[in-house]
Amino acid sequence: MTETFDRVDLTNCDREPIHRLGAIQPFGFLLVVSSDWFVVRASTNLEQFVGIPYQDALGQLASTIIHAPTLHALRNRLTVMRGPDMVERLFGVTFSEKGPLFDIAIHLSDGQIVIEAEPSQDGSQGGTTMSIRSMMARLDQAETLEAFFREGARQARALTGFDRVMVYRFDESGSGEVVAEAARAGIGSFLGLHYPASDIPAQARTLYTRNLFRIIADINAVNIPVEPELDEVGRPLDLSMSILRSVSPIHIEYLKNMGVGASLSISIVLDGKLWGLFACHHYSARLPSFERRTTAELFGQMFASRLESRERRLALEFETKARRIADRLLTSVADNASLLDDPAWLIEALSDAVPADGIGVWINGRSALSGLTPSQGQFAELVKVLNRNAAGRVFATDHIAGFWPEIDPAGVAAGLLAIPISRSPRDYVVLFRQEIVRTVRWAGDPHKPVEYGPNGPRLTPRKSFETWSELVRGRSQPFTAAERRVAETIRVTLIEVVLRLTDEANAVRIQANERQEVLIAELNHRVRNILSLINGLIRQSRGNADNISEFVEHLEGRVQALSRAHDQITRDHWAPASLRALLQAEAAAYLGNNAARILIDGDEALLAPQAFSTTALVLHELVTNSAKYGSLSDSGTVKTSWEKDENGNLVIDWQESDGPPVKEPTRQGFGTTIIRRSIPYDLGGKAEVHYDPAGLRAQFSIPAKYVTFAEGPVSLLPSAPEEMTAEARAQVALKPLAGIRILLVEDNLIIAMDGEDIFLQLGAAEVALAPSVALALDLVEKHEFDLAVLDFHLGEETSAPVADRLRAKGTPIIFATGYGETTMHASQMSGVDLLQKPYTIESVASTLARIMPAKVS
Questions:
Q1: Confidence of residue 515 (pLDDT cuts 50, 70, 90)
Q2: ∠ CA(678), CA(682), CA(685), 5° rounding?
Q3: Which of 287, 461, 556, 743 could join 12 in a cystine, given CB atoms 3.0 to 4.6 angstroms apart?
């Protein structure tokens, strides 16, 4: 087919609208039926799959092509579809009795029903070796965003089987950066490379937010037309949500220039906006099964959800801290208006909220500067430019010269954040940041002039992807979205101060009180709408606090206790959670290094979610009260034990000792109410509290229906990483594998990644993973390894052929197995060390000591 590109649409990628393409990829077929189920369009390869020429299918009822059970299932799917971009899927269905199995996707387009099908892949690629749940657990254990991205790439590659999987992040300009990568050995790395915005232009990015998954199975495939090209009213078919839609020839040319044979992309959408992609490349044709592609799409959505939660949590922590700073600023300036004329004080007050290298203050035509700033004259000109262009809003740029070309950049900060602090004429607090000279590595020269191709006036995709380094000057560290939101909070705060200082004192106080009441009312309104439970805590805590500080402390502690409890019961998809873990978490959160002063005794007991939050609040109040007034406030201890009574109920005993003398309080606060009444009221249990002078005693009974008992001790926090033993730390410090390249043959990805992590901790330079004999032999032929660790049993095969080839090359071998030596023949064991699973640093180091004693010792 021939495409015409106008000047606006000259891009290297797919364009919107997609219906201009009018064709599909050949690994499936397409039917379009009207609302009364007559076939109005069909792909010309229909006969290849179902034995009916597309010309004969047009105008026929869908029931002449699709037999009744499948047609019934399709109708049922249509009834649950909601929204314009909804796509439903069916797996392993037939179009005729005893016909081959197909996987089907169905969606609506311009009021018509689009049915796409491809042959089911009957286990030819193998099922996934992990569940979404275990994949999410691996992501949740990543401590940093970098580790989170890297783990996401590894999981996505394990799921799709592509040669290279990249986590590709867009910046505000539309350019992309590869922030994480997982790739098979020997194909180089794209990690850290930047790509210009034109590689994935705005039209394609818009489509990526609607259709989250894109597969190009074979870039050399010939596309299949959909006939007729136009419907009865002259409309082309919109294939925006299609799973089979064909690809722009320009994008195919782009991939060929990269040497790619197949590609796959999974959108990462945060808060309705395209954050980035999982970009997957394969260097030959590859088509994962439709079911596996659907799982990969779900993984992409779960990854985005986890990433959004992480970013929101970090932003919330940052903004909470900034609001406290703004409150202090408000109080300080209200008491001493001259502080606004002291930029040194302002930069000190604001630096914790928004880091800066200099600050300028402009109030009523007077200016004050501190740190790295323009001159007084330049600053006055800057205020005029801001009044023309910033329109009274917080304004940020990391490139002052681009915003204000007249400035001489020599010796002047490169970035600024301008905070207007009055109405008209506007006054400003301006934060400045210094220039950061950095090198950006591009995949090709982003400034290369446009080239025209052999087909006339249309762009040719760039052919060079060699690393091109650019020295970036005149720019600062950008101000983040969170920092701009903090600046907005500061703007509101400072405007309030300036207004207070410019009006008469009494009038200002009245206005300030009114604004204060409005803000408090709005805050309470939002809290009521978001969390009714928090509203109850606020009301009760406010009534039992002597001052605002005590109120905030009580409320924050209780909310955090609920948050920790919620984290634990949602960690395992709202399953029962450990009482022991709850105590440990509460003690660690409130007592830190002194958490060991709470002695815990009792077999593992798991609390149902509805009981877990209630118990968390009770234990929080007990811990905080003891730390303030009881044994934990002194040098005493608390013993907490529990057991199952004759009725199967959980009986918890709390006993404080060796603390200050205890006496019963004269009034009952909200915390005491929680301790005494929560478990009886919410769970129908019992609670008794005794103020023994020697130490507070309490006993609680939680009904059996909320409790699951386990025999013996159970690990406390399954998702938390185990702390390394002293022996393991010593082995890691030795780095016995420094500089060594290792081949690890293991058919289970989770076990393989755990082994890889251990070898890397012990200093290995590289660990190549292979899940099968075929891939392992391929790696052995192409690369030299200093050591091989082979899982002997690989599903229905063994790694014996790999061992034979490695012996021939003289490579040291360690067999890893969970079955034991008895399952291996003597000939296979000859001269080979055995490593029992599961892998641990200690066991690996011990085995290494036998084969490399000089280095390990």
A1: low
A2: 80
A3: 461
For 217: left if phi > 0, alpha if psi spans -120 to 50, otherwise beta; the answer is alpha
Choose among 446, 396, 369: nearest CA to 175: 446
Over residues 50-64, the mean pLDDT reads 91
Q: Residue 848 and residue 183: Cα distance in Å, rounded?
A: 27
Q: Which are the contacts of 138, defined by CB distance < 8 A and separation ≥ 6?
A: 151, 155, 750, 753
CA angle 655, 659, 663 (to 5 degrees): 80
Distances (CA, A) of 674 to 181, 499, 558, 589: 50, 44, 11, 19
Instruction: Look at residue 820 and give its three-state secondary structure.
Output: coil
Contact 224, 242 (CB under 8 A): no
Largest distance between two CA atoms of the chain: 98
Tokens of 26: 């050949």
Cross-strand bridge partners of residue 727: none
The 10s digit of each residue's pLDDT in 284-300 is 999 999 988 998 999 99
The mean pLDDT value for 112-131 works out to 72
Tokens of 665: 């309080």
Q: What one-letter code names the amino acid at 273?
A: K
What distances in angstroms separate CA 545 from CA 485, 552, 555, 674, one per listed residue? 31, 9, 10, 15
Cα gap 802→355, rounded to integer Å = 56
Say whether 336-437+473-508 and 14-119 share the same fold. yes
Alpha-carbon 522 to chain mean position: 31
pLDDT digits (tens, 9 = 90+) for 607-623: 887 788 788 888 888 88
Tokens of 820: 């034991």
Of 22-26, 201-205, 317-321, 441-445, the poorest mean pLDDT is in: 441-445
CA distance linking residue 130 with residue 132, whole number of Å: 7
Query: Pairing between strand 707-709 and 605-607?
Result: antiparallel
Residue ranges covered by each domain of the chain: 14-119, 336-437+473-508, 544-709, 726-856
Instruction: Determine the CATH number of domain 544-709.
Output: 3.30.565.10
Domain 726-856 listed as CATH 1.10.1740.10 = no
Q: What is the fold of 14-119?
A: Beta-Lactamase (3.30.450)
User: Residue 798 pairs with which residues in a beta bridge?
Assistant: 793
Q: Does residue 578 register a pLDDT over 60?
A: yes
User: Quick one: how many helices (H) and strands (E) in the chain?
Assistant: 25, 35
Q: Which two tokens stand for residue 50?
A: 């179902």
Token representation of residue 813: 């071998």
Residues paired with 642 in a beta bridge = 652
CATH class of the domain at 336-437+473-508: alpha beta
DSSP 721: P
Cα–Cα distance, 516 to 282 (Å, whole number):
60
pLDDT 10s digits, 259-277: 899 999 999 999 888 999 9
Contact indicator for 435, 410 with CB cutoff of 8 Å: no
Share of the chain above pLDDT 70, in %: 74
Cis peptide leading into residue 228 (ω within 30°): yes
Q: What is the C-alpha separation between 60 and 41, in angstroms, rounded?
A: 10
